[in-house]
Amino acid sequence: MYTITGITGKVGGTLARKLLEAKLPVRAVMRDAAKGQTWVDQGAEVAIAEMEDAKALAQAFAGSEAVFILPPSEFDPEPGYPEAQKVIDAVVTALKKARPSRVLCLSTIGADAHENNLLTQRTMMEEALSTLSIPLTFLRPGWFLENSLWDVASARDEGVIRSFLQPADKPFAMVATEDIGRIAAELIQQDWTTGKRVVELEGPVRVSPNDLAKAFANALGHPVRVEIVPRDTWETLFRGQGMKNPLPRMRMLDGFNEGWIDFPGNGDLALKGTVSVDTVIRNLVKSATIE
């Protein structure tokens, strides 16, 4: 049995579909039973559990050959990341009780960064899971190309994308969620028996904000330019959007821009996906048009 958390998201959903297509048994761990029927119809079992509920998670993980951990994202965390810690404590307790044969955890680029930032929540998860005597794989993908969903409206209506990643010509390690889910499906089936491994993943080529603008222009059929959001405006902007603790997010962006969030050797040893930036942006624009 392959037990999948985060199955309602793009990565978890792609992973689960790949396993089901291979005729492998899948158990979907979900918070909302109403969303489970879709997966039952595709041949999966459904277990109901909150990611902070160790008892329910242990029951969901019981009898699993492999478990996929996709921690929920907290973009405006309290200082010290107590929200993430609750999930980590529950997941570790549940895995200790259920004892699956192996665990695959979706982590992130920057989980090895030494400076505190929003991605430190994934560092904490890696450190906690590493205390378990269960074979572990941490999948560290780059920046999600699908984050560009937030730029669709401005690119379409104003011909501009406003970028916190800067400078505009700097290429960053980015990857499509389709590639992450596909690689996760391959990794979770591999029978590694001891220890911990880290797998880094980025797209076929690195992508700059200018490349994103070009992809939007191609998809929309009109010019799109990059407008850099000045660093000294970030805190006011984020607080105006309702954030109470924007510093971790700001430091994450600093990490990408300053280079201390990156794969070693500019990703020379990272796995490379196959989905292009043009494909992702075209699909985002198409989906927004349909909606």
Note down, in words, how this protein is organized.
- By secondary structure, the protein is α/β, with parallel strands linked by helices.
- The protein has a domain at 2-144 and 174-202: Rossmann fold.
- It has helices at 10-21, 37-41, 54-61, 82-98, 120-129, 152-158, 177-189, 209-220, 234-240, 247-258, 277-290; strands at 2-4, 26-30, 45-48, 66-69, 102-106, 136-141, 143-144, 160-163, 174-175, 196-202, 225-228, 271-272.
- It has an 8-stranded parallel β-sheet with strand order 3-2-1-4-5-6-10-12, with helices on both faces.
- The mean pLDDT is 96.
Write the layout of secondary structure elements.
Elements: E1 2-4, H1 10-21, E2 26-30, H2 37-41, E3 45-48, H3 54-61, E4 66-69, H4 82-98, E5 102-106, H5 120-129, E6 136-141, E7 143-144, H6 152-158, E8 160-163, E9 174-175, H7 177-189, E10 196-202, H8 209-220, E11 225-228, H9 234-240, H10 247-258, E12 271-272, H11 277-290
Parallel strand pairs: 1-2, 1-4, 2-3, 4-5, 5-6, 6-10, 7-9, 8-11, 10-12
Helix pairs in contact: 1-7, 3-4, 4-5, 8-11
Number of H- or I-type helical stretches: 11
Query: Share of helix among residues?
Result: 40-55%
Here the CATH topology of the domain at 2-144 and 174-202 equals Rossmann fold
Task: Describe the main β-sheet briefly.
Answer: 8 strands, parallel
| Alpha carbon gap, first and last residue | 36 Å
Mean pLDDT: 96
Q: CATH homologous superfamily of the domain at 2-144 and 174-202?
A: NAD(P)-binding Rossmann-like Domain
What portion of residues belong to β-strands?
Answer: 15-25%
**In order across it, which strands form the biggest sheet?**
3-2-1-4-5-6-10-12
**Record field, number of beta strands:** 12
User: In one word, what is the shape?
Assistant: globular
**Gross CATH architecture of the domain at 2-144 and 174-202:** 3-Layer(aba) Sandwich
Uncertain runs: none
What's the CATH C level of the domain at 2-144 and 174-202? Alpha Beta
Determine the structural class based on helices, strands and strand pairing.
alpha/beta
Q: Compute the gyration radius: what is it?
A: 19 Å
Task: Output the helix-strand order.
Answer: EHEHEHEHEHEEHEEHEHEHHEH
